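Summary of Year 1 activities. Much of the first year was spent building the evaluation harness for sequence design. The harness presents a backbone, in tokenized form, and records the residue chosen at every position. We chose the following record to illustrate the format because it has been used consistently in internal testing since the harness was completed.
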């Protein structure tokens, strides 16, 4: 009788793995087609049936995209904004989260709930007054406007606070007894112990900023300030028949965030899995 439950568990596990493989294949298939199409000629991209192996491989597309499109400027601007915004959000989010998680002051919980509640407020509701404010400061049509827009994030504070609560308060209390300031506790104790959560916040923020389209569309007018999302949108309009080059540009736009995710995948999974677990 004991063998039957074991067989059922094995069968269920096999079916689960098969379902996960099918789901993963469904998610990855469009990306695989995009990469393959980037190595084809324009006439081969939409042939039916699909040619999964290009004949011939057109590696020239990865040279032409840099010539016909201003990819250097787009990638440089996007990388600059993404890196700066990520650093700002990691610093501000982790420090604010430390205040909410490890210090005591009147109205702390109410202030935290009020701040987290801003996640539910759609950007469209305050997009115009925000644009007017930044324009009055002379920041419109500069990369600084995008950096300032995303320098603070309620989600990052929430994520870091949940992780900080898994760290025993006794560590902070011992550090205070030894004379360490709150800044020192945050820098020397909390940050080194929260690498998985920091990695999760870094990946999420970098990917979100890299893929942002609406913000740069509103604030960046000069071509030399365009990010890769704006540049590819204009490239599609100028070369709408160059299907292979469009796919090549799409591959190049996805490649950096794929590398960032792969490098931090282990910490990302660990950070998400342990966030909210009480210490």
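For this record, the design step produced the sequence shown next.
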């Amino acid at each position: 009788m004991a063998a039957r439950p074991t067989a059922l568990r094995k069968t269920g596990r096999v079916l689960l793995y098969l379902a996960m493989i099918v789901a993963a294949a469904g998610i990855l298939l469009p990306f695989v087609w995009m990469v393959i199409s980037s190595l084809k000629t324009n006439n081969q991209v939409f042939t039916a049936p699909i040619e999964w192996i290009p004949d011939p491989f057109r590696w020239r597309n990865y040279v032409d995209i840099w010539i016909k499109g201003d990819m250097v400027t787009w990638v440089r601007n996007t990388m600059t904004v993404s890196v700066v915004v990520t650093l700002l959000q990691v610093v501000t989010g982790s420090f604010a989260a430390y205040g909410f998680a490890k210090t005591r002051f009147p109205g702390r919980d109410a202030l935290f709930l009020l701040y987290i509640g801003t996640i539910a407020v759609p950007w469209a509701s305050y997009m115009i007054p925000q644009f007017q404010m930044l324009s009055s400061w002379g920041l419109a049509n500069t990369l600084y406007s995008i950096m300032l827009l995303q320098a603070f994030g309620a989600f990052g504070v929430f994520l870091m606070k949940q992780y900080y609560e898994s760290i025993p308060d006794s560590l902070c209390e011992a550090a205070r007894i030894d004379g360490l300031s709150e800044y020192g506790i945050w820098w020397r104790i909390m940050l080194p112990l929260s690498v998985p959560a920091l990695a999760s916040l870094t990946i999420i923020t970098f990917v979100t900023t890299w893929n942002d389209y609406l913000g740069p569309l509103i604030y960046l007018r000069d071509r030399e300030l365009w990010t890769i999302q704006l540049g590819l949108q204009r490239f599609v309009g100028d070369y709408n028949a160059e299907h292979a080059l469009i796919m090549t540009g799409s591959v190049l736009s996805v490649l950096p965030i794929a590398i960032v995710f792969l490098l931090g995948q282990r910490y990302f999974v660990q950070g998400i899995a342990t966030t909210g677990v009480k210490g």
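The CA atoms of residues 46 and 222 lie 34 Å apart. Quantitative recovery figures across the full test set are reported in Table 2.
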